[in-house]
Amino acid sequence: MLRKKQYRNQFIAVNLLLSNIVMGGIDTILLYSGDIFRNAGISESNIFYINIGAFSLLFICCFVGSFLVDRFGGYRVMVAGCVVLLCSQVLFTVAQAIEHLSPAVTRPLAVVAVFLILGSWSLGINSSVFALLGEITTDRTRTTAYGYAAILFWILSWLGGFIPPYLILYARAYALAPWIIWTVMIIVYAITYLPGVREKTS
Fold first, then answer.
1. Taking a C-beta distance cutoff of 8 angstroms, is the pair 106, 95 a contact?
2. What is the pLDDT of residues 4-24, one digit of tens each?
3. Which residues belong to any copy of the Major facilitator superfamily (MFS) profile domain (predicted)?
4. Angle formed by the axes of helices 44-72 and 103-120, to 10°?
5. What is the distance between the alpha carbons of residues 185 and 181, in angstroms, rounded to a whole number?
6. Pick from 5, 187, 201, 200: which is nearest to 82 by CA?
7. For the residues 128-142, what does the mean pLDDT come to?
8. What is the signed CA dihedral for 140, 142, 148, 150, rounded to 10 degrees?
9. How far apart are the C-alpha atoms of 149 and 18, rounded to whole Å?
């Protein structure tokens, strides 16, 4: 499969796009959203309800995302989701980094960034990935590519849950930096290389 360029490109695309589900820093946000809200000055009694709202947002955005994918296609929805995700990651990082300058402003911004990250991930990335994978693969490559991508996906899922505590402990405000770098790479790949893969499989 990897000997032919066309099949090799499909293999690489499937692995990158499926890995993108867990490499955008979503686990960092999901695992520590309570701490983020608490740091923003939200009372303990309200954090529970805000978390419910945040997780409800995931479901709503996924539902809306399915219609957007049907209307605009998986590629456009995925790229748009990644761009919004990147902006949200940067907003969150900046808000955390300059928190000491104006907590009253930066802490609410961090909360807004959390909701934007969750929304862009659910609506743009999670909703579009399988539709897009179907577009860029053929019957000859799909089973093999999905199999290897699933293995990589679960390895990265473990890393995505294992690394965040150390990032928060040592990187502090810049805990999302590795995920920002990944998101930039995915956007560049999606814009420059992915259209060629899609054209060769259409």
1. yes
2. 887 889 999 999 999 999 999
3. 1-201
4. 40
5. 6
6. 187
7. 90
8. -160
9. 7
Which are the contacts of 64, defined by CB distance < 8 A and separation ≥ 6? 123, 127
135-158: burial string, b at 16+ Cβ within 10 Å, e else: bbbeeebeebbbeebeeebeebee
Q: Provide the token pair at 50.
A: 């805000």
Q: What CATH fold (topology level) applies to the domain 5-201?
A: Growth Hormone; Chain: A; (1.20.1250)
Specify whether the CB–CB gap between 96 and 32 falls below 8 A: no
> How far is CA 30 from each of CA 22, 25, 55, 56, rounded to the nearest angstrom?
11, 9, 9, 12
Q: Which residue carries 């605009």 as its tokens?
A: 72
Q: Which two tokens stand for residue 175?
A: 């805990």
Looking at residue 74, what is its pLDDT?
A: 94
Tokens describing residue 133: 């994978």
Residue pair 91/109 in contact by the 8 Å Cβ criterion: yes
